Protein backbone atom coordinates (compact mmCIF):
# COMPACT_ATOMS: atom_id res chain seq x y z
CA UNK A 1 0.00 0.00 0.00
CA UNK A 2 1.03 3.64 -0.50
CA UNK A 3 3.25 4.46 2.48
CA UNK A 4 3.04 8.23 1.98
CA UNK A 5 -0.31 8.38 3.73
CA UNK A 6 -0.70 8.12 7.45
CA UNK A 7 -3.31 5.39 7.15
CA UNK A 8 -3.64 2.38 4.87
CA UNK A 9 -7.39 2.43 5.37
CA UNK A 10 -9.88 5.14 6.22
CA UNK A 11 -13.16 3.44 7.17
CA UNK A 12 -16.24 5.63 7.38
CA UNK A 13 -19.07 4.46 9.65
CA UNK A 14 -18.87 2.33 12.80
CA UNK A 15 -21.83 0.01 12.38
CA UNK A 16 -21.36 -3.75 12.19
CA UNK A 17 -19.68 -3.52 8.77
CA UNK A 18 -17.20 -0.81 9.68
CA UNK A 19 -16.36 -2.35 13.05
CA UNK A 20 -15.85 -5.83 11.54
CA UNK A 21 -13.67 -4.50 8.73
CA UNK A 22 -11.59 -2.38 11.13
CA UNK A 23 -11.05 -5.45 13.28
CA UNK A 24 -9.86 -7.74 10.49
CA UNK A 25 -7.68 -5.12 8.83
CA UNK A 26 -6.05 -3.97 12.06
CA UNK A 27 -5.52 -7.59 13.07
CA UNK A 28 -3.64 -8.10 9.79
CA UNK A 29 -1.33 -5.17 10.60
CA UNK A 30 -2.97 -2.44 8.53
CA UNK A 31 -2.90 1.14 9.77
CA UNK A 32 -6.60 1.76 10.19
CA UNK A 33 -8.71 4.73 11.16
CA UNK A 34 -12.45 4.24 11.72
CA UNK A 35 -14.51 7.41 11.93
CA UNK A 36 -18.12 7.64 13.06
CA UNK A 37 -20.36 10.68 12.78
CA UNK A 38 -22.15 9.90 16.01
CA UNK A 39 -21.20 6.99 18.24
CA UNK A 40 -20.53 3.38 17.21
CA UNK A 41 -23.71 1.32 16.66
CA UNK A 42 -25.88 4.43 16.39
CA UNK A 43 -27.23 3.42 12.97
CA UNK A 44 -29.21 0.35 11.89
CA UNK A 45 -26.86 -2.02 13.69
CA UNK A 46 -27.73 -0.65 17.11
CA UNK A 47 -31.43 -1.37 16.50
CA UNK A 48 -31.06 -4.86 15.10
CA UNK A 49 -32.90 -7.84 16.54
CA UNK A 50 -29.60 -9.72 16.62
CA UNK A 51 -30.59 -12.81 14.66
CA UNK A 52 -27.73 -14.56 12.86
CA UNK A 53 -29.93 -16.10 10.23
CA UNK A 54 -27.58 -17.85 7.83
CA UNK A 55 -30.15 -20.42 6.76
CA UNK A 56 -32.45 -17.73 5.35
CA UNK A 57 -29.84 -16.48 2.87
CA UNK A 58 -30.88 -17.08 -0.73
CA UNK A 59 -28.54 -17.59 -3.67
CA UNK A 60 -26.22 -16.01 -4.67
CA UNK A 61 -25.54 -15.17 -1.02
CA UNK A 62 -26.44 -18.62 0.26
CA UNK A 63 -23.03 -20.04 -0.57
CA UNK A 64 -21.69 -17.89 2.29
CA UNK A 65 -24.02 -19.45 4.88
CA UNK A 66 -21.59 -21.97 6.36
CA UNK A 67 -18.89 -19.30 6.40
CA UNK A 68 -21.23 -17.04 8.38
CA UNK A 69 -21.47 -19.67 11.09
CA UNK A 70 -17.73 -20.38 11.00
CA UNK A 71 -16.82 -16.69 11.12
CA UNK A 72 -19.08 -16.01 14.09
CA UNK A 73 -17.55 -18.98 15.89
CA UNK A 74 -14.08 -17.76 15.02
CA UNK A 75 -14.83 -14.30 16.39
CA UNK A 76 -16.14 -15.85 19.58
CA UNK A 77 -12.91 -17.84 19.90
CA UNK A 78 -10.63 -14.91 19.11
CA UNK A 79 -12.57 -12.49 21.32
CA UNK A 80 -13.93 -14.33 24.35
CA UNK A 81 -16.23 -11.43 25.30
CA UNK A 82 -17.82 -11.39 21.83
CA UNK A 83 -21.55 -12.01 22.40
CA UNK A 84 -22.77 -15.13 20.59
CA UNK A 85 -25.33 -17.79 21.40
CA UNK A 86 -26.49 -20.54 19.04
CA UNK A 87 -29.98 -20.80 20.45
CA UNK A 88 -31.96 -22.26 17.53
CA UNK A 89 -35.07 -20.94 15.85
CA UNK A 90 -38.65 -22.20 15.72
CA UNK A 91 -40.86 -21.03 12.85
CA UNK A 92 -44.55 -21.78 12.52
CA UNK A 93 -47.87 -20.39 11.36
CA UNK A 94 -47.90 -18.17 8.29
CA UNK A 95 -44.13 -17.69 8.69
CA UNK A 96 -43.61 -21.41 8.40
CA UNK A 97 -45.70 -21.69 5.25
CA UNK A 98 -43.29 -19.33 3.52
CA UNK A 99 -40.54 -21.90 4.04
CA UNK A 100 -39.91 -25.12 2.21
CA UNK A 101 -41.03 -27.82 4.58
CA UNK A 102 -40.21 -30.75 2.37
CA UNK A 103 -37.55 -32.00 4.77
CA UNK A 104 -39.02 -34.07 7.53
CA UNK A 105 -36.96 -36.05 9.97
CA UNK A 106 -33.29 -35.95 10.72
CA UNK A 107 -31.09 -33.49 8.91
CA UNK A 108 -27.41 -34.08 8.37
CA UNK A 109 -26.51 -30.45 7.81
CA UNK A 110 -26.83 -27.78 10.48
CA UNK A 111 -28.13 -25.49 7.75
CA UNK A 112 -31.01 -27.78 6.82
CA UNK A 113 -34.20 -27.15 8.78
CA UNK A 114 -36.01 -29.95 10.56
CA UNK A 115 -39.74 -30.32 10.87
CA UNK A 116 -40.39 -31.18 14.49
CA UNK A 117 -43.38 -32.47 16.44
CA UNK A 118 -45.42 -30.76 19.12
CA UNK A 119 -43.65 -32.76 21.86
CA UNK A 120 -40.29 -31.63 20.56
CA UNK A 121 -41.56 -28.06 20.37
CA UNK A 122 -42.72 -28.25 24.00
CA UNK A 123 -39.32 -29.58 25.02
CA UNK A 124 -37.55 -26.69 23.29
CA UNK A 125 -39.92 -23.94 24.39
CA UNK A 126 -41.93 -25.07 27.42
CA UNK A 127 -43.53 -21.62 27.87
CA UNK A 128 -45.36 -21.61 24.54
CA UNK A 129 -49.07 -21.41 25.45
CA UNK A 130 -50.21 -22.74 22.07
CA UNK A 131 -47.48 -24.98 20.65
CA UNK A 132 -48.33 -25.87 17.05
CA UNK A 133 -48.68 -29.45 15.81
CA UNK A 134 -45.41 -29.08 14.00
CA UNK A 135 -42.84 -26.39 13.32
CA UNK A 136 -39.68 -25.79 11.38
CA UNK A 137 -36.63 -25.91 13.58
CA UNK A 138 -33.24 -24.54 12.62
CA UNK A 139 -30.51 -25.41 15.09
CA UNK A 140 -27.88 -23.23 13.43
CA UNK A 141 -29.63 -19.97 14.22
CA UNK A 142 -27.85 -17.69 16.61
CA UNK A 143 -28.08 -14.37 18.32
CA UNK A 144 -25.61 -11.65 19.06
CA UNK A 145 -26.03 -8.42 20.92
CA UNK A 146 -25.24 -5.86 18.19
CA UNK A 147 -24.10 -3.00 20.42
CA UNK A 148 -21.83 -5.20 22.50
CA UNK A 149 -20.52 -6.99 19.40
CA UNK A 150 -19.54 -3.69 17.79
CA UNK A 151 -17.95 -2.45 21.01
CA UNK A 152 -16.00 -5.69 21.29
CA UNK A 153 -14.74 -5.50 17.68
CA UNK A 154 -13.74 -1.86 18.13
CA UNK A 155 -11.86 -2.53 21.34
CA UNK A 156 -10.04 -5.40 19.65
CA UNK A 157 -9.24 -3.25 16.60
CA UNK A 158 -7.83 -0.59 18.93
CA UNK A 159 -5.76 -3.29 20.60
CA UNK A 160 -4.21 -3.93 17.18
CA UNK A 161 -3.41 -0.21 16.81
CA UNK A 162 -6.51 1.12 15.01
CA UNK A 163 -7.64 4.69 15.69
CA UNK A 164 -11.38 5.04 16.28
CA UNK A 165 -12.94 8.50 16.39
CA UNK A 166 -16.57 9.16 17.32
CA UNK A 167 -18.52 12.36 16.62
CA UNK A 168 -16.50 12.82 13.47
CA UNK A 169 -18.56 12.94 10.27
CA UNK A 170 -16.95 12.48 6.88
CA UNK A 171 -18.18 15.52 4.96
CA UNK A 172 -16.62 14.97 1.53
CA UNK A 173 -14.38 12.52 -0.24
CA UNK A 174 -10.93 13.97 -0.93
CA UNK A 175 -10.06 13.51 -4.59
CA UNK A 176 -6.62 14.05 -6.09
CA UNK A 177 -5.81 13.18 -9.71
CA UNK A 178 -8.79 10.85 -10.05
CA UNK A 179 -7.95 9.05 -6.82
CA UNK A 180 -9.84 9.17 -3.54
CA UNK A 181 -7.23 9.88 -0.86
CA UNK A 182 -9.39 10.14 2.24
CA UNK A 183 -12.17 12.30 3.61
CA UNK A 184 -12.67 15.79 4.93
CA UNK A 185 -14.12 16.20 8.41
CA UNK A 186 -14.87 19.16 10.62
CA UNK A 187 -11.63 18.50 12.48
CA UNK A 188 -9.52 18.36 9.32
CA UNK A 189 -8.68 16.06 6.45
CA UNK A 190 -7.91 12.38 7.02
CA UNK A 191 -5.72 10.80 4.37
CA UNK A 192 -5.43 7.14 3.54
CA UNK A 193 -4.37 4.91 0.67
CA UNK A 194 -7.83 3.37 0.54
CA UNK A 195 -11.15 4.77 1.72
CA UNK A 196 -13.98 2.37 2.51
CA UNK A 197 -17.52 3.62 2.99
CA UNK A 198 -19.37 1.47 5.52
CA UNK A 199 -21.70 4.33 6.37
CA UNK A 200 -24.99 2.53 5.74
CA UNK A 201 -27.54 5.12 4.68
CA UNK A 202 -24.78 7.74 4.79
CA UNK A 203 -22.94 6.03 1.92
CA UNK A 204 -25.22 7.23 -0.93
CA UNK A 205 -25.09 10.75 0.52
CA UNK A 206 -21.30 10.84 0.51
CA UNK A 207 -21.17 9.42 -3.01
CA UNK A 208 -23.74 11.86 -4.36
CA UNK A 209 -21.54 14.79 -3.33
CA UNK A 210 -19.04 13.51 -5.93
CA UNK A 211 -21.75 12.85 -8.51
CA UNK A 212 -21.88 9.10 -7.90
CA UNK A 213 -24.95 7.01 -7.21
CA UNK A 214 -25.58 3.70 -5.49
CA UNK A 215 -29.14 2.45 -4.99
CA UNK A 216 -29.23 1.83 -1.25
CA UNK A 217 -32.63 2.66 0.15
CA UNK A 218 -33.83 2.98 3.72
CA UNK A 219 -36.41 0.55 5.02
CA UNK A 220 -37.88 0.97 8.50
CA UNK A 221 -38.42 -1.84 11.00
CA UNK A 222 -39.51 -1.80 14.62
CA UNK A 223 -37.65 -3.18 17.60
CA UNK A 224 -39.57 -3.60 20.86
CA UNK A 225 -38.16 -4.36 24.30
CA UNK A 226 -40.12 -5.76 27.24
CA UNK A 227 -39.26 -6.00 30.92
CA UNK A 228 -39.60 -9.59 32.05
CA UNK A 229 -38.90 -11.15 35.40
CA UNK A 230 -37.69 -14.55 34.21
CA UNK A 231 -36.54 -16.49 31.17
CA UNK A 232 -39.53 -17.06 28.87
CA UNK A 233 -37.86 -18.24 25.66
CA UNK A 234 -34.81 -20.39 25.03
CA UNK A 235 -34.37 -19.58 21.36
CA UNK A 236 -35.88 -17.43 18.62
CA UNK A 237 -39.60 -17.91 17.97
CA UNK A 238 -40.95 -16.63 14.67
CA UNK A 239 -44.68 -17.17 14.21
CA UNK A 240 -47.68 -15.30 12.85
CA UNK A 241 -48.16 -13.83 16.33
CA UNK A 242 -44.63 -12.78 17.25
CA UNK A 243 -40.94 -12.73 16.41
CA UNK A 244 -39.23 -12.71 19.76
CA UNK A 245 -36.25 -13.83 21.77
CA UNK A 246 -34.86 -13.47 25.24
CA UNK A 247 -32.01 -10.94 25.58
CA UNK A 248 -30.65 -11.53 29.04
CA UNK A 249 -32.56 -12.44 32.17
CA UNK A 250 -34.72 -9.30 32.30
CA UNK A 251 -35.35 -8.46 28.64
CA UNK A 252 -37.45 -9.91 25.85
CA UNK A 253 -36.98 -8.42 22.36
CA UNK A 254 -39.46 -8.49 19.51
CA UNK A 255 -39.14 -7.29 15.92
CA UNK A 256 -42.11 -6.10 13.89
CA UNK A 257 -42.72 -4.63 10.46
CA UNK A 258 -43.18 -0.89 10.27
CA UNK A 259 -46.55 0.09 8.78
CA UNK A 260 -46.94 3.87 9.08
CA UNK A 261 -46.93 6.61 11.69
CA UNK A 262 -50.67 6.86 12.29
CA UNK A 263 -52.13 6.46 15.77
CA UNK A 264 -53.68 3.16 14.73
CA UNK A 265 -50.60 1.56 13.15
CA UNK A 266 -47.71 3.66 14.40
CA UNK A 267 -44.76 2.14 16.29
CA UNK A 268 -46.34 2.58 19.75
CA UNK A 269 -49.58 0.90 18.61
CA UNK A 270 -47.54 -1.96 17.17
CA UNK A 271 -45.58 -2.20 20.42
CA UNK A 272 -48.81 -2.49 22.40
CA UNK A 273 -50.18 -5.11 20.01
CA UNK A 274 -46.95 -7.09 20.38
CA UNK A 275 -47.27 -6.86 24.17
CA UNK A 276 -50.79 -8.27 23.98
CA UNK A 277 -49.72 -11.04 21.60
CA UNK A 278 -46.76 -12.11 23.72
CA UNK A 279 -48.83 -12.10 26.91
CA UNK A 280 -51.27 -14.43 25.15
CA UNK A 281 -48.65 -16.66 23.51
CA UNK A 282 -46.30 -17.27 26.43
CA UNK A 283 -47.16 -18.80 29.77
CA UNK A 284 -45.69 -16.65 32.50
CA UNK A 285 -45.74 -13.49 30.36
CA UNK A 286 -48.92 -12.02 31.88
CA UNK A 287 -46.98 -9.42 33.87
CA UNK A 288 -44.40 -8.39 31.25
CA UNK A 289 -44.25 -4.65 30.55
CA UNK A 290 -43.43 -2.65 27.45
CA UNK A 291 -40.06 -0.94 27.99
CA UNK A 292 -39.31 0.71 24.66
CA UNK A 293 -40.31 0.88 21.02
CA UNK A 294 -37.83 2.14 18.43
CA UNK A 295 -37.75 2.42 14.67
CA UNK A 296 -34.50 1.48 12.96
CA UNK A 297 -33.72 2.34 9.35
CA UNK A 298 -32.17 -0.53 7.43
CA UNK A 299 -29.83 0.20 4.51
CA UNK A 300 -30.97 -2.20 1.78
CA UNK A 301 -29.36 -2.34 -1.68
CA UNK A 302 -32.09 -2.17 -4.34
CA UNK A 303 -31.43 -5.71 -5.59
CA UNK A 304 -31.02 -6.91 -1.98
CA UNK A 305 -27.53 -8.27 -2.67
CA UNK A 306 -24.46 -7.10 -0.75
CA UNK A 307 -22.37 -4.31 -2.27
CA UNK A 308 -18.69 -5.02 -1.66
CA UNK A 309 -15.73 -3.78 -3.62
CA UNK A 310 -14.22 -0.88 -5.52
CA UNK A 311 -16.11 1.99 -7.11
CA UNK A 312 -14.98 2.27 -10.70
CA UNK A 313 -15.17 6.08 -11.00
CA UNK A 314 -12.24 6.72 -8.66
CA UNK A 315 -9.26 4.66 -7.57
CA UNK A 316 -8.92 4.17 -3.84
CA UNK A 317 -12.67 4.18 -3.11
CA UNK A 318 -14.50 1.09 -1.82
CA UNK A 319 -17.96 0.23 -0.51
CA UNK A 320 -19.30 -2.37 1.89
CA UNK A 321 -23.04 -2.57 2.57
CA UNK A 322 -25.41 -5.52 2.94
CA UNK A 323 -28.70 -6.75 4.25
CA UNK A 324 -29.15 -8.62 6.55
CA UNK A 325 -25.98 -6.96 7.67
CA UNK A 326 -25.69 -8.35 11.13
CA UNK A 327 -25.68 -11.88 9.73
CA UNK A 328 -23.29 -11.17 6.88
CA UNK A 329 -20.86 -8.57 8.20
CA UNK A 330 -18.16 -10.77 9.78
CA UNK A 331 -17.90 -12.93 6.67
CA UNK A 332 -18.03 -10.09 4.15
CA UNK A 333 -15.53 -8.10 6.21
CA UNK A 334 -13.11 -10.99 6.54
CA UNK A 335 -13.17 -11.72 2.80
CA UNK A 336 -13.03 -8.05 1.89
CA UNK A 337 -10.14 -7.33 4.27
CA UNK A 338 -8.08 -9.93 2.41
CA UNK A 339 -8.87 -8.25 -0.92
CA UNK A 340 -7.98 -4.83 0.39
CA UNK A 341 -4.68 -6.03 1.78
CA UNK A 342 -3.55 -8.29 -1.07
CA UNK A 343 -5.23 -6.48 -3.99
CA UNK A 344 -6.37 -9.91 -5.18
CA UNK A 345 -10.10 -10.20 -5.78
CA UNK A 346 -11.84 -13.18 -4.21
CA UNK A 347 -14.37 -14.92 -6.49
CA UNK A 348 -16.64 -15.37 -3.45
CA UNK A 349 -17.51 -11.67 -3.65
CA UNK A 350 -17.83 -11.47 -7.44
CA UNK A 351 -21.63 -11.28 -7.46
CA UNK A 352 -21.60 -8.31 -5.16
CA UNK A 353 -19.50 -5.69 -6.92
CA UNK A 354 -20.69 -2.06 -7.04
CA UNK A 355 -19.92 -2.11 -10.76
CA UNK A 356 -23.23 -3.91 -11.42
CA UNK A 357 -24.93 -0.55 -10.82
CA UNK A 358 -22.43 1.51 -12.76
CA UNK A 359 -23.50 1.43 -16.39
C1 LIG B 1 -35.27 -3.24 13.64
C2 LIG B 1 -34.15 -3.93 12.90
C3 LIG B 1 -33.92 -5.28 13.09
C4 LIG B 1 -32.90 -5.91 12.39
N1 LIG B 1 -32.65 -7.20 12.68
C5 LIG B 1 -31.64 -7.84 12.07
C6 LIG B 1 -31.32 -9.17 12.42
O1 LIG B 1 -31.93 -9.75 13.33
N2 LIG B 1 -30.33 -9.80 11.74
C7 LIG B 1 -29.61 -9.18 10.75
O2 LIG B 1 -28.72 -9.80 10.16
N3 LIG B 1 -29.88 -7.89 10.41
C8 LIG B 1 -30.86 -7.22 11.05
N4 LIG B 1 -31.14 -5.93 10.73
C9 LIG B 1 -30.38 -5.30 9.64
C10 LIG B 1 -29.03 -4.85 10.13
O3 LIG B 1 -29.21 -4.11 11.31
C11 LIG B 1 -28.32 -3.98 9.07
O4 LIG B 1 -28.25 -4.70 7.84
C12 LIG B 1 -26.89 -3.65 9.50
O5 LIG B 1 -26.89 -3.19 10.84
C13 LIG B 1 -26.28 -2.59 8.60
O6 LIG B 1 -25.02 -2.30 9.15
P1 LIG B 1 -24.10 -1.16 8.55
O7 LIG B 1 -22.83 -1.18 9.33
O8 LIG B 1 -24.03 -1.30 7.08
O9 LIG B 1 -24.93 0.18 8.78
P2 LIG B 1 -25.20 1.02 10.11
O10 LIG B 1 -25.35 0.17 11.30
O11 LIG B 1 -26.30 1.96 9.81
O12 LIG B 1 -23.85 1.82 10.32
C14 LIG B 1 -23.48 2.93 9.52
C15 LIG B 1 -22.77 3.90 10.44
O13 LIG B 1 -22.22 4.95 9.63
C16 LIG B 1 -22.36 6.16 10.33
N5 LIG B 1 -22.28 7.24 9.33
C17 LIG B 1 -23.20 7.57 8.39
N6 LIG B 1 -22.76 8.61 7.65
C18 LIG B 1 -21.52 8.92 8.12
C19 LIG B 1 -20.56 9.90 7.78
N7 LIG B 1 -20.78 10.78 6.78
N8 LIG B 1 -19.41 9.97 8.49
C20 LIG B 1 -19.18 9.09 9.52
N9 LIG B 1 -20.06 8.15 9.90
C21 LIG B 1 -21.22 8.05 9.19
C22 LIG B 1 -23.72 6.04 11.01
O14 LIG B 1 -23.82 6.92 12.11
C23 LIG B 1 -23.72 4.58 11.43
O15 LIG B 1 -23.21 4.39 12.74
C24 LIG B 1 -32.10 -5.23 11.44
C25 LIG B 1 -32.33 -3.86 11.27
C26 LIG B 1 -33.32 -3.21 11.99
C27 LIG B 1 -33.50 -1.73 11.82
TrEMBL record:
It comes from the Bacteria. Keywords: Oxidoreductase. SUPFAM superfamilies: FAD/NAD(P)-binding domain (SSF51905). One of its GO terms (molecular function) is oxidoreductase activity. Residues 8-337 form the FAD dependent oxidoreductase domain. GO terms for cellular component: cytoplasm. The keyword DNA-binding does not apply. This is FAD-dependent oxidoreductase. The lineage of its organism: Bacteria, Pseudomonadati, Pseudomonadota, Gammaproteobacteria, Pseudomonadales.
Amino acid sequence: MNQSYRYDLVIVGAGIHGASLAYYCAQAGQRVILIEESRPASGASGHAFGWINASALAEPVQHLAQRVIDDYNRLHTELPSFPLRWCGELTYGACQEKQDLSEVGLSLSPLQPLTISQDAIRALEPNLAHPPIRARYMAAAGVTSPVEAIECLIQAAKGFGASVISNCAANELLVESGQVVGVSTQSGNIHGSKTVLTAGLGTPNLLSRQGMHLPIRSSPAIIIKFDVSNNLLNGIVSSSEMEARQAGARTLIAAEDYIDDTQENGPVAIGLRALKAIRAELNGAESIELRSVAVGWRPIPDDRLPIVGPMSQYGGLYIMSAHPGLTLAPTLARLFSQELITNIATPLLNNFRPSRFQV
